[in-house]
Amino acid sequence: MAESGEGLGTVPEHERILQEIQSTDTACVGPTLRSVYDDQPNAHKKFMEKLDACIRNHDKEIEKMCNFHHQGFVDAITELLKVRTDAEKLKVQVTDTNRRFQDAGKEVIVQTEDIIRCRIQQRNITTVIEKLQLCLPVLEMYSKLKEQMSAKRYYSALKTMEQLENVYFPRVSQYRFCQLMIENLPKLREDIKEISMSDLKDFLESIRKHSDKIGGTAMKQAQQQKLFSVILQKQNNVKFGKTIYINNRIPEERNEIVLKPVFEEEDENEEEVLTVQDLVDFSPVYRCLHIYSVLGDEETFENYYRKQRKKQARLVLQPQSNMHETVDGYRRYFTQIVGFFVVEDHILHVTQGLVTRAYTDELWNMALSKIIAVLRAHSSYCTDPDLVLELKNLIVIFADTLQGYGFPVNRLFDLLFEIRDQYNETLLKKWAGVFRDIFEEDNYSPIPIVNEEEYKTVISKFPFQDPDVEKQSFPKKLPMSQSVPHIYIQVKEFIYASLKFSESLHRSSTEVDDMLRKSTNLLLTRTLSSCLLNLIKKPHIGLTELVQIIINTTHLEQACKYLEDFITNITNISQETVHTTRLYGLSTFKDARHAAEGEIYTKLNQKIDEFVQLADYDWTMSEPDGRASGYLMDLINFLRSIFQVFTHLPGKVAQTACMSACQHLSTSLMQMLLDSELKQISMGAVQQFNLDVIQCELFASSEPVPGFQGDTLQLAFIDLRQLLDLFMVWDWSTYLADYGQPASKYLRVNPNTALTLLEKMKDTSKKNNIFAQFRKNDRDKQKLIETVVKQLRSLVNGMSQHT
Question: Do residues 308 and 205 lie in contact, with contact meaning Cβ atoms separated by under 8 Å?
């Protein structure tokens, strides 16, 4: 029962599977068949049984269908057999008709083929004409390109290439010759680039060689324009009655030096004004720029141009090692730099973007720093003020030229102030030599004046004013020597020379006035002062020359106010202006005069020492000669003659010299007595020495120099007088009793000095025969000497302990 139940369940399922197999595409039968095997056991066997049953049913149906249509099929075959005979007859007729038609159409076919062939040829000719009409413009343009290349019209050639590529080649791009042309165009472009670059290199080399001429022309034009402005301003000032200021003149004839051109050329050879375009052919630059612009490689060209120009700038800025030796070296250096930047300025204004203002400013700042460093270094080697002045004029023209092209030049004018200091130093060195020559050539004697004409000549050179001298009749003498007017003239010449450097520096009158006064102060306080001091210290300058130097410095000191007026007349700046610098000549000449006075005192003392060294005392003489020593009388006569010369000196100077001489003589005589090498002194020698001191006192009392009050000059010998009186009178009791008292008769006698001299005399008394007899007759005096010596030693020891 169970099996029968399962069989009943699977029968519908097998029917469904069979229906799916019959109704489904053969490619999709697989899943259906798989379900047969996935069912219960023995399901396959049952399915096969079911399938066989289904097949048998279909066979039965087919057989029924065939039986039903069999008679109709037999009838159709019978009819076909009847038609077969008629079909064969028709075939024979058609074949015959086709043969006859073919025979009739052979001529038509031949003619038709001829027509077709002619038509093809005609079409080909038309096509060729059309293609040639397309190709001929291309070939003509390419031929034009070749002609342009041969004629070196490279910019036009590039434009032709653009037309070929954009217009003509696209029309014939399918042809091989077009491909060859297309392949050749890049090579032609490279050739053009190389050729144009070669032209540019030639151009750069050319302007490098001609930058000197370009810069010289530009600087000359700037100078001519400046000179024209100066002349115009002078005419206006003359017209309106104005005083011409420094930038436009130097007083008197020296203005001719100012207007002397830096770039000298003969007037008859003067040509028309040339511009940079007249001197340089810029077409290679324009052509190359256009070519690279067309090629779309403008940046490469700009970079190359700027790089090469920077290299040239470094070469131009590199000076020659001996540039500082001549002005031509500086001129060549400046003209090359100006030529370089004039070209760059022209390129800036006529091209778009090849160089920019930022680029030229950067290049100029780099160049300016290098120029300043070079000028600072090379100008330091210049020792000739004329060369420094010409360098300054070149720098001014150089700066004015480049300023006219829009380049900032303030730093160059700042540099000129540094060079101005150096210029002043070279002037000071030059004038130091001038002053030395003047002093060497001077005879240090008053200037002799024979007639009125000579007097006016001297007065025109030096502002001398002395009513007493003017009243004197000719011939007469001026108190100063020839060096005074010469020095005064040279100081004015120095001011002129210093003024030359101040021109064209674009400074105010006040600043120029200040510069002149400061440089003049340096000349007076350093150069002239040094020359005077060196002159005073020279061995061959004697007392007479020193006296004349003092007189000269007095007159030069008085002339300082005229020098200040001279500067004021040049600059039109009043001396009462708050910031006006005063001249320090007064202190300079005072210092020189003091030095000369000190040298007088020194030389006078040296002369006294020379006379004193001639002293030849017999320190053991028993009796004096009865007259003063010969050396001392010669010394006194010398002092009298010298002090006669001192009458031209200021009173205090002569009095100081006289007092210094007397004091030095007194000190020398005292040192002679107390000389450690002198061991013995006799009383006769003391008496002889006393005679010499008396002559000194008589000389002092004779008032060799007026102005001393009372016996002031005699006080120079008071120490000697009291010491000699003490020994001549032998008044030891008074000396010892009054020692230390303000009213002591021998107040100026030092115990140590008295002891030294007394010991020299005691040693002499022991060895002298006369004193030996004296000791026998008067032993008490010898004991007194010993007693005095002991007391003096106690005083000296007491002084030492007190000290």
Answer: no
pLDDT > 90? residue 422: no
Whole-angstrom Cα distance, residue 164 to residue 143? 11
Asked whether 543 and 660 are in contact (CB, 8 A), the reply is no
Q: Encode pLDDT of 8-63 as tens digits.
A: 455 677 777 777 777 776 666 777 767 777 656 677 777 788 888 888 888 888 88
Alpha carbon 30 to its chain's center: 105
Helix (H) or strand (E) holding 449: strand 447-449
CA distance 760 to 294: 120
Q: What is the mean pLDDT of residues 780-794?
A: 78
Task: Give the C-alpha distances (Å, rounded to integers) separating 237 from 224, 230, 231, 243, 403.
Answer: 20, 10, 10, 7, 26
Whether the pTM exceeds 0.85: the reply is no
DSSP-derived secondary structure for 525-586:
IIIIHHHHHHHHH-TT--HHHHHHHHHHHHHHHHHHHHHHHHHHHHH---TTSTTPPPP-HH
Is the bond preceding residue 475 a cis peptide, omega within 30 degrees? Answer: yes
Buried/exposed 327-349: b ≥16 CB within 10 Å, e otherwise: bebbbbbbbbbbbbbbbbbbbbe
> pLDDT tens for residues 343-400?
888 888 888 778 888 888 888 999 889 988 888 888 778 878 888 888 888 888 888 8
Contacts of 311 (CB under 8 A, 6+ apart): none
CA–CA separation, 378 and 381 (whole Å): 6
CA distance 701 to 495: 51
The letter for the amino acid at 621 is M
Backbone phi and psi for residue 669, each to the nearest 5 degrees, phi listed first: -65, -40
HSE at residue 192, side-chain half, CA atoms within 13 A, is 32
